[in-house]
């Protein structure tokens, strides 16, 4: 070994020792940070809540998820405005008194909240099934706004009365129809399949009924999207 190697070796070992010590200290700090994050869930949850709030702040008020999204609290100005505009639109489209449609919309929102079903989907089903005619009856025995067939859902109807004519009560019909829809949504886990089952057309390959309902829901949602714009009246 030459003279240069002999002199540089202690200095090199010293530098390596300092680097090792610094790395060890850094790893210790990282480990401590991880332990604190796990041991102290409250601050971590607070950060997560803050992040979620920040994300919500960037979205238009009251965005409704297409499956069973968040429903605005009843009685808030935003919810009242949304339901009022929906009622006006549906009243004009189906030529029904706005006062009556307002009741249907309010019940759909309430039933949707209770059953965790998208209220816009409920309103779309009503549009396709009965065009908002509360006394509609089909040749198959389906009744009311959501065209519920009594013989298949007597246990749900019995909660509201012994006679299946209770389905001609708009509130009862929407509640029962929403419960039926919720069952299919949970059973199949897919909105299109659930809608086909609701219509009794589970095996129909073109999903014509589901497409009609989802198209109607999309039209309603487009209206609400315009409503939620900052310059909307």
What does this structure look like?
The radius of gyration is 30 Å and the shape is globular. By secondary structure, it is mainly α. The relative contact order is 0.09. The chain folds into two domains: 3-57; 77-227, Lysozyme (Orthogonal Bundle). The longest helix has 37 residues, at 3-39. It starts with a helix and ends in a 6-residue tail after the last helix. The protein contains nine helices and no strands.
Topology diagram in text:
Layout: H1 3-39, H2 41-57, H3 77-94, H4 98-115, H5 119-130, H6 154-157, H7 170-188, H8 191-198, H9 208-227
Helix pairs in contact: 3-4, 4-5, 4-7, 5-9, 7-8, 8-9
SSE string, helices as H and strands as E: HHHHHHHHH
C-alpha-based Rg, rounded = 30 Å
The overall number of domains is: 2
- The counted number of beta strands is 0
Gross geometry = globular
Distance between the termini: 88 Å
Helix content: 55-70%
Q: Please count the helical segments.
A: 9
Strand content: under 5%
pLDDT averaged residue by residue: 76
Largest sheet, if any? Answer: none
Report low-confidence residues grouped into runs of 5 or more. Answer: 1-20, 22-71
Any idea what the CATH architecture of the largest domain is? Answer: Orthogonal Bundle
Annotated CATH topology of the largest domain: Lysozyme
């Amino acid at each position: 070994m030459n003279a240069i190697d002999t002199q540089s070796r202690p200095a090199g070992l010293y530098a390596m020792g300092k680097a090792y010590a610094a790395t060890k200290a850094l790893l210790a700090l990282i480990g401590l940070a991880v332990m604190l994050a796990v041991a102290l869930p409250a601050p971590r949850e607070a950060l997560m809540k803050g992040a979620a709030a920040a994300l919500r702040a960037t979205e238009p008020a009251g965005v409704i998820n297409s499956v069973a999204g968040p429903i605005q609290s009843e009685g808030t100005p935003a919810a009242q405005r949304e339901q009022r505009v929906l009622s006006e639109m549906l009243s004009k489209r189906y030529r029904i008194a706005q006062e009556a449609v307002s009741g249907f919309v309010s019940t759909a929102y309430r039933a949707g909240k209770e059953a965790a079903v998208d209220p816009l989907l409920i309103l779309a089903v009503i549009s396709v099934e009965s065009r908002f005619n509360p006394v509609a009856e089909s040749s198959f025995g389906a009744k009311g706004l959501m065209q519920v067939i009594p013989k298949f859902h007597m246990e749900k109807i019995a909660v509201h009365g012994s006679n299946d004519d209770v389905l001609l009560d708009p509130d009862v019909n929407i509640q029962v129809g929403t419960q039926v829809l919720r069952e299919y949504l949970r059973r199949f886990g897919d909105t299109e399949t659930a809608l086909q089952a609701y219509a009794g057309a589970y095996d129909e390959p073109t999903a014509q009924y589901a497409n009609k309902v989802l198209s109607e829901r999309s039209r309603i949602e487009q209206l609400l999207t315009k409503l939620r714009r900052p310059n909307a009246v």
